[in-house]
Amino acid sequence: MKKKYILVTGCAGFVGMHLCNKFLKSNYSVIGIDNLNNYYSKKLKMDRLKILKKFKNFKFLKVNICDKQKLFFALKKKEFSHVIHLAAQAGVRYSLLNPDSYIQTNIVGFVNLLEFFKNKKINKFFYASSSSVYGRNRKIPYKENYNTDFPKSLYAATKKSGEILAEYYNYYFKMNLVGLRFFTIYGPWGRPDMSLFLFTDLIKKNKKINIFNKGNMSRSFTYIDDVIEGIFKLFRSKKKLDFDKSQIFNIGGDKKIRLNKFIQLIEQVLGKKFKKKYLPMMKADVKETFSNNNKLINQIKFEPKTSPLIGIKNFISWHKAYYD
User: Fold this and answer.
1) What share of residues in the chain are helix, strand, coil (percent, to 5)?
2) Would you tell me which CATH number, out of the four given (3.30.300.30, 3.40.50.720, 3.40.50.1370, 3.40.50.2300), belongs to the domain 4-185+222-253+291-305?
3) Quick check: 96 pLDDT over 80?
């Protein structure tokens, strides 16, 4: 009998690396795939991979999920128990500049994976969605059953499309699909295009930071360890899910925090004030996000609760060690 692996796409990414690390330390066998594109620092991705390659129960495949033929060839002789699909073209603002990348990766790439696994018996197929799908909703906090038909960005539209595709494949092929709506993840080994990473880089270089809408925005900032624990508990959960429809869970910080407050905490930890440039609200941005985690709590008795101050301290400690 062939060994069964967990497949993690986007394994060299921020969430992907941390999740693989969790599985590997828990003695699961993992195959990670990533195309190592140049959306941001390839060195950062390679250094994340170095951590994973220390484990004997990890195999890496450099594959682009948009290339159906190569993807199918890479996966065809292997057995999988679970899929955790995290590979995506991320970033709300970048979707205004390079829409093709979002359509190809977030829709075509996702369909390629669904097509490969549609007739294979796997326990669960998790896929990354985003709080961005809530779009123009004004009811806060966001619940999974809210209308998500009004995206504010192409990125959000592609993530919403992924959820609709999952609904179809779950209905027709009984694939046990589970969507994860992430809320503003931050922490060590994070993405350089995210606010905490950008702000920390700029304050250390004594450069101005751009603050949209005068900082009058709020987010359910979610620390990476909480995200990983949430996914891992859903993975391990024995509580049955109703797969007559595809399942979706919010995974977001239990409190919303204003951007101005978040910036003050960074200044507090670094002991230095930012130079600030205030800009109007961007049309693709949402003013606030706030996660209702009741469904997650009911399923796995867990809610992300790491305080922003602790999370920021941990990130800045990592940033200094990595870059300084």
Assistant:
1) 45, 20, 40
2) 3.40.50.720
3) no
